[in-house]
Amino acid sequence: MNRPKRKRISCASLFGRATVALVCAVVETQAADILIDARTVFQRMDGFGASERVFDDPHVFDNFNPATARALTVLSTNQQDAVLDRLYIDLRLTRVRPASPDTAVGAGIEPQNDNTDPNVSDPTKFNFTWKSLDAHIEYIARARQRGVSTWFLSPLNRETWMGTTTTNDAAEYAEWLLAQALRCQALGVPLPYLSVANEPSYSRNTLSGAFVRDVIKILGPKLRAANLPTLLVVPDDVRSSDAAGKTQIILADPVARSYVGALATHLYDESLTNVTKMRLLSEQYGLPLWMTEFSLALAGAVNLGNGPFDYAGLIHELLGTYNVSAVDYQWGFFGQWENKSQLVILNHDTTGAQSYTGYTLTKEYYVTGQYSKFVAPGAYRIRADSTNSTIKVTAYLDWPQLTIVAFNSAASGNPAVSFSLAGLPAISAVIPVRTSATENWASLPAINVTGATFTATLPHQSVTTFNATLPPPLLNIARSNETVTLSWPVAAANFRPEETGQLTTSNTWLSVTNAPAVAGDQQVVTLLRNPATRFFRLRK
Ligand SMILES: [Ca+2]
Fold this sequence. Notes:
10-stranded mixed sheet, 3 domains, single chain, binds calcium ion, Immunoglobulin-like, alpha/beta, 21% helix, TIM Barrel, 10 helices
């Protein structure tokens, strides 16, 4: 696969009065060969999202109206809807992570303990108004109307009266989380997930791994008794090196582990390579790993630069190296004062009434969209190898949808890059969409695929997403005297075989529940033959 790099010689002559100089520079065009191989399947994707504060939270605009006790800058419902449409329809974010409850000291959702028994809740002592919870529930409902499928609370602060050491403390914390989960259920957005705490290694809300484990063991059965399937997210910590220690303690307990649905970390203040610690735990326990809070503002701290395209490099590393299955930006929207922490900037006059003046879509918004618009929850990442480390490629398959994302991180050069496809049926073309310094989600002409290869020019500092629709995967059926063997591509990871004895009615198909073995690029199930006629099909 190695091909010599092509070099272009740029020369310029400088003529001076007394000297003649010839200056030459060698410019690497940085060609690369990319192999996309669907026979190797990695993590199942859980989507892209962002943390959220409600529109009228004073923190969003860093201003305050004493008359309303909310932000001085106000968006109308139509103006809010326009921002929601950008995030959840155009950008296709599928995840919301509210910053809730936002408890001022002594004024939380359970400002005093409701009673001395954590197994008996007095609802009259809880207060969920506005940004403590109810405004977030309303936000989730509006996002859900636009396609959001995953939302989870990640409490910023416990109540000031709460302890964090005894069994009774854990029971009170579990009661407090349960009250929030029940409120979400009652208002129509039951939680698919719930983070026990935002950043339990941060001084604002320090909790030990053992305490989080004990909370889960009390909370889990109470959620199920309330008919809630909510899975817990742990530890949602500041950084992977802290998160890994807590995760080990929590998951070592099989009862606690049975209620955990995802591992999560943020990326603050240490090298990205530490995410390896969380990846190994994710693999050990078969749980997805999510990156639940970070932004370009701090990307330099993980040894990336600060240009908008470094966020493409970060997403690439998280998905391609650390098998992360969900990426949440710090904020979907925020006021202009929070530089580089938001995908959508809400602008306002900085003088007088500080009126809202509209939104700005950042380059990070478009960079994120090169992934989030095309890689849906349920897609599987497949192998993508590059012979050039500056050309960073990942690929995803949600059969029939094939998506390849290529980031040219080089500072110069516009190389022609060759892509080879393996383990996939023949396709005739890929359709590119590109974001570069001068383009945002630019639709480019289709590129023909010949003999499972195609070539594309990747400008420096650009992200190109190539999309193709595959033909349906084939189910092979082989019969011997004793057995029937079904086989279908490993790459069709989201398909399963079904069987029926008759084709005359449409609703008699049953899943073939035998676990498939893998042989080469095929998944294989062998069934005993029986005398009756049977029909088989593959279904997503
Ligand atoms: Ca209580």
